[in-house]
Amino acid sequence: KMAATVKKTVAVEDVNVTFEDQKKINTFARNTNRMTEFKDEIEGKKKSLQNLQDASDDLMMAEDDTLLVPYQIGDVFISHTQEETQEMLEAAKELLQQEIKDLEGKVSKIQHLLGDLKVQLYAKFGNNINLEADES
Fold first, then answer.
1. What family does this chain come from, according to its entry (predicted)?
2. Per-position DSSP letters for the chain, written without gaps between them
3. pTM for this one?
4. 19-60 vs 82-125: helix axis angle to the nearest 10?
5. How far is CA 65 from CA 36, 55, 83, in A?
């Protein structure tokens, strides 16, 4: 979790927190949480992608290519030829790769926004604000 907090012990000068400042701090916190959610989603999709790759590799090593392979669609397993199953695995992998790429793009945009906000907030509040992620 990320806590964007203005420290209570204000140093030598008293810094006034305006409504605009508060909006920036809230935007920073909200986007930090969104970025964490996207990163978790990316990890999950990468695991699914690896599982599809493993299934694809196992299928290629199958001796008898006349066997039908059960492929799960929703809650149901439907049997397909190995070639059909391989094509379905490839399509699923391509879809996941695109979803990962899209999520990584969102993370990148958020990182850029957070970088801008950090510069603005540290410029005004200096050491009186902490915008670093808690490593807990």
1. Belongs to the prefoldin subunit beta family.
2. ----EE-SS--SSPPP--HHHHHHHHHHHHHHHHHHHHHHHHHHHHHHHHHHHHHHHHHHT-S-TTS-EEEEETTEEEEE-HHHHHHHHHHHHHHHHHHHHHHHHHHHHHHHHHHHHHHHHHHHHGGGEE-SPP--
3. 0.78
4. 160
5. 43, 15, 8
